[in-house]
Amino acid sequence: MGEITERNGSICRLVPELLSSFVDTFVDYSVSGLFLPNFNSNPNSTSSPTILQTHCPPPDRLVAIGDLHGDLEKSQEAFRLAGLIDSNGKWIGGSTTVVQIGDVLDRGSEELKILYFLEKLKREAAKSGGSIISMNGNHEIMNVEGDFRFVTKKGLDEFKNWADWFTIGNHMKALCKELKKPKDPFSGIPAVFPGIKKEFVDGFRARIAALQPNGPIATRFLSQNLTVLVIGDSVFVHGGLLAEHVDYGLDRINKEVRDWICGLKGRQPPSYVIGRNSLVWLRKFSDELAKNCDCSALEHTLATIPGAKRMIMGHTIQKSGINSVCSNKAIRIDVGMSRGCTNGLPEVLEINKNSTIQILTSNPLYLNKEKPYLDANRMDGLGLLVPEQGPKQVEVKA
Fold this sequence. Notes:
Elements: H1 2-32, E1 55-56, E2 61-65, H2 72-81, E3 97-100, H3 111-127, E4 131-134, H4 138-145, H5 153-174, H6 198-211, H7 216-220, E5 228-231, E6 234-237, H8 243-248, H9 250-261, H10 295-303, E7 310-313, E8 323-325, E9 330-332, E10 347-352, E11 356-361, H11 376-379, E12 396-397
Parallel strand pairs: 1-5, 2-3, 3-4, 6-7, 7-9
Antiparallel strand pairs: 2-10, 5-6, 8-9, 10-11, 11-12
Helix pairs in contact: 1-5, 5-6
C-alpha cells in the first residue's frame, strides 16, 4: 500500500512539469505547425546552457548551406537538393553533418518557421547519427542587439503571432499553482517607440521580447549557435576569420557570444562580432573578383589553425553561385537564395571524408550535359558534374 501511495505521489509531483511541457508543445505547434514534443526540454528553462563544440572530426559527409533569410520554401529546397529531406520535409540524410552558416533572420517572412524547421531536423538527424549545426550570422547578432533595420512587415507579424501564443501559454501555466509564475517577456519593453509607425509597434515589441538577450527565442534557438567552427580541415564562419580572432581563442569566442545571447554579458555584443572586421561582417575574402581578396591574410589565418586547409563563409552574395578564390582556400556559399535577397537558385556545398568537394545546385543551365561545367573565372578550380536527374554537382580534390 505504501508503495502505491509513493508511486502516486511521484506521479502527482510530475503533473506540473508535464503540464508545462504540454503547453510548450501546444504553443510550438500553434506558431510553427510542427509537433515538437517538449517533455525533455523547457524553452523557459534557466539551467546552464550546453557546452558548444568548436572543433569536430570530419564526418563521412558534410554539407554546408548558406544564408536563408526568412525563406522557408527555399530553405527546404536547399535541404532537398542535398538529399537531406524527403518531399514531406522528413530527414533522410542519415549520418550527414550539416552546417547552416547563419543569417536565418531578416529580409523574409518565415524566420521563426525556419528556426522550428531546423529544430525538428536536428532531432530527426540525431536519431540517424547525423547532426545539424547552426551558426550566428551578422543578422542574428543584430537582432539580439535590437537592430531591426532589415526586418520586413511580415517578419514583424510572425513574431507578433508568436507573442500572442506565448502569452496564452503563460496564462495557461499560471493556472497551475505548483508551477513557478512565468516571466513576462515584455517586462521593461516600452509601449511606444519614436519613429515607429503605430501598426508596427506590436510586432516590434514582440521581436524585442523574443530576441533580446535571455529572450525566449534567443535563449532557446540562438544560444545553441556557434560563431566559429572547425570540422576536420575546414573552418566555418559567417563573414570571415582573422589571425587576431584565432589568437583571442575560438572556444572563448563561442562561449562569450553564447553567454551574451543568454543574458549573462549585458546588452552589448562582444566587439569581435560588430564592425567591418568582425567575424560576422568581414568581406576581405568574399569579393567575387579574386584580385580584390586578401589571400595573404587568409593564408596567415589558416596557418594559425592546425590542419586547416580552407575557410567556408556566407554573408556576401555570390551572383555566380558558390565559388572559391585563393587557390580554393576561400569558399563562398551565400547565393542570395531568399526571395528577400536576390531570389537566387539554391546551391549547397558538400565535402566528403576524403576532402572531395562538390557543389549541388538547382540551376537548370548546368543540366545541359553538352555544355562544359567548368568556369575557371568563377570557380578557381572547382568543376561541375551533373547527375542523371536533379541538381548539378561539382567535384574536386582540395
